[in-house]
Design a protein that fits this description.
globular, 9 helices, about 55% helix, mainly alpha
Length: about 230
Amino acid sequence: MKSWEIAKYLLDCKKDIDSIKYISENVKLISNLNLKGILDSRLRDFYIKIRVVYDKCLTKSQKKTLCKTDIVLERTLHEADKNYAHKDDDYIPSEIEFEELIRTLKQRIEHCKEVCKENLPKCLTLDYVSYDRDLYRFINGISPKVEIELQKKLFPNYTKTFKEVMGKNYKTFDDIENIKMINNPGDYGVIMECGLNFYEGLQNRQDACIRINVLFDKNIWCSLKNK
């Protein structure tokens, strides 16, 4: 697996943290939803995908050796294996507050990025924002119809076809796992959506950068300015 393909899994983990942070700040507004189920889903995605990153960057013997001295890596893989990849009978869950949970997840993903840095793009950044695409729409009552009207107002070309805008029809490359089925990348294009707000725009642009890099073997990236 190439570096930008691995990076996609790490970025998805970062977006899970974004989502959990958004949940923690909007509990009252989504209290009628199955919060436990939503939170479990985000955590499962985080641990399964961070495990993929380690698996693609380290051999089994390397992981085994590191787990003896690296407590952060050991705890990360323990949680992934015992609770999410499997449901071991001897696993004992622990209840922690949102603040501690988010701090722990950030520590584990940053540590993973450092341990696996030789297999990841050097320009990759982890820009945390408090945001969940689906929950944002639920909280703000944005139905598909409302969203289309918003997009039309924000972007005049939103309803036009690729041919009207670009002069050629392209197939959409929207999943990096499909790269193995593509023989001619020039027949494909990547949609870089701005989203409904700044946070969604950042997540969408970073996702699009990864798809472009995987499709065309490039090395582009965007991130937040320091200020």
